[in-house]
Write a sequence for this structure.
């Protein structure tokens, strides 16, 4: 990687805070990597400096979808302390303004980073020079993924219209929401209450986020304001992938309503992507789908979402100096 005139790395800067967008959703194979790569390409095409990060240390494959054969460096090097400087892991891609941190060569014996590594990663991520950083979280609900999802400026949940995917997306939201509430409150009693409520068969009879909120307000009403604030800030964006009909498009609105009803949160339905048999052709050819088939319905859908995100980026750039530099979760190692 080239160094600039001051001797610093081109991807390391403190002058500009990138917007971090984390993409998860619980279920495997719903299209998170497909979405991240193609959204990234679309945003780079719109003129933004983009870094995509494969945070899926268990199943790294983002580089392949992007057409990067054998990445020379990986996030695993940072997690294993082989490379201390995250900026040195940023690789160029064939697409102008689009860069990658891959996740190959992970130590499968301990792929998931511990709390301090997560904090270090999130801190250093904010120092990278880019307009936007897209994090592909991979499947599951491991503590590291939840921390990244909550620490990001935006969290996107990708789902498919299948009931199993909706169920997993709801489970992911529930886990993220409880974790968010737990870090928002200051009372140790309430934190313990939230941890207990995370067990769906808890003895307290708390079966839904609403039950939990009612219990918290009854026990310590002074915490209610912090929770309301956390609810307002918790604004996941929803994407429905593999859509085959208008009815399936509408599913995103139904999930948004459920978020309001069960969590009291205002999720945004970012958009949908059609199922398209050409996706496989693009992956096999090692080309991002929106590059290979720009006029397909699915590519148009992704382009629409990219423009929505681009509008947020413009707003973010205007507000950036006043944004907090680092947002990290508290240490819940014991409750992980
Ligand atoms: N809209 C689509 N139309 C057709 N195929 C798609 C679409 N979106 C994704 N795919 C295909 O579905 C498969 C799974 O997609 P992808 O790997 O992006 O899922 P994922 O959520 O990242 O999976 P994992 O949880 O394992 O990381 C891939 O073969 C991908 O090419
Ligand atoms: Mg993936």
């Amino acid at each position: 990687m080239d160094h600039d005139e001051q001797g610093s790395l081109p991807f390391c800067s403190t002058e500009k805070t990138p917007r971090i967008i984390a993409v998860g959703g619980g279920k495997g194979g719903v299209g998170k990597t497909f979405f991240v790569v193609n959204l990234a390409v679309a945003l780079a095409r719109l003129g933004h400096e983009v870094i995509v990060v494969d945070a899926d240390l268990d199943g790294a494959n983002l580089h392949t979808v992007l057409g990067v054969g054998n990445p020379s460096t990986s996030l695993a090097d940072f997690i294993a302390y082989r490379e201390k400087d995250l900026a040195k892991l940023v690789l160029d891609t064939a697409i102008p303004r689009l860069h990658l941190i891959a996740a190959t060569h992970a130590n499968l014996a301990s792929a998931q980073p511990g709390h301090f590594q997560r904090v270090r990663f999130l801190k250093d991520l904010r120092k990278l020079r880019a307009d936007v950083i897209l994090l592909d979280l991979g499947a599951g609900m491991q503590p590291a993924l939840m921390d990244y999802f909550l620490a990001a400026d935006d969290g996107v949940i990708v789902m498919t219209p299948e009931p199993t995917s909706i169920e997993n997306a709801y489970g992911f939201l529930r886990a993220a929401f409880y974790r968010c509430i737990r870090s928002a409150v200051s009372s140790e009693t309430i934190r313990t209450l939230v941890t207990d409520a995370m067990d769906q068969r808890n003895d307290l009879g708390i079966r839904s986020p609403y039950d939990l909120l009612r219990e918290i307000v009854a026990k310590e009403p002074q915490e209610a304001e912090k929770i309301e604030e956390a609810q307002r800030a918790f604004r996941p964006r929803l994407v429905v992938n593999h859509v085959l009909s208008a009815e399936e498009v509408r599913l995103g609105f139904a999930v948004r309503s459920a978020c309001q009803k069960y969590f009291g949160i205002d999720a945004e339905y970012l958009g949908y992507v059609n199922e398209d048999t050409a996706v496989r052709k693009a992956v096999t050819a090692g080309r991002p789908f929106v590059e290979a088939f720009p006029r397909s319905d699915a590519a148009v859908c992704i382009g629409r979402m990219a423009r929505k995100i681009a509008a947020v980026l413009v707003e973010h750039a205007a507000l950036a100096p006043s944004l907090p530099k680092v947002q990290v979760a508290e240490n819940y190692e014991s409750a992980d």
Observations:
- The chain has a mean pLDDT of 87.
- The chain is about 45% helix and 10% strand.
- The domain at 17-158+276-315 is CATH 3.40.50.300 (Rossmann fold).
